[in-house]
Design a protein that fits this description.
It is built from two helices and no strands. By secondary structure, the protein is mostly helical. The chain starts with a helix and ends with a helix. The model has no long low-confidence stretch (mean pLDDT 88).
Length: 140
């Protein structure tokens, strides 16, 4: 009977450990999803701002071309430079966002591993204490 009780206690502890680990993983997955959604929203806002800037620049350039036909070549050069700068800015922003996402995911994975290790250590100590208490009660 004592062995059965001990086995049942260990099984219960393992089930509790598994439930806690699953709950932590679910919470972390939700956090990751929220972070990714926020980052996507930020990317969309940045792209919209860049598009608006490009449209404004193109409108200004068209007005300048209509007013002063003499400096068409200079304006074309300016357009090319602006487009190159905008492309470079977009590429830099995308690279920074990708790096941020990777760093966040790495940090979250490390936190998950640490939490699981701590839970396993705590549960193993709890199991040891329960077995010790059980053995002492057997002697008494």
């Amino acid at each position: 009977m004592d062995d059965i009780f001990e086995a049942i206690m260990i099984i219960i502890m393992i089930i509790i450990m598994i439930i806690i680990i699953i709950m932590i993983i679910i919470i972390i997955i939700i956090i990751i999803i929220i972070i990714i959604i926020i980052i996507i929203i930020i990317i969309i806002i940045i792209i919209i701002i860049i598009i608006i800037i490009i449209i404004i620049i193109i409108i200004i350039i068209i007005i300048i071309i209509i007013i002063i036909i003499i400096i068409i070549i200079i304006i074309i050069i300016i357009i090319i430079i602006i487009i190159i700068i905008i492309i470079i800015i977009i590429i830099i922003i995308i690279i920074i966002i990708i790096i941020i996402i990777i760093i966040i995911i790495i940090i979250i994975i490390i936190i998950i591993i640490i939490i699981i290790i701590i839970i396993i250590i705590i549960m193993s100590k709890m199991c040891d204490k329960i077995i010790l208490l059980f053995n002492q009660s057997k002697r008494n």
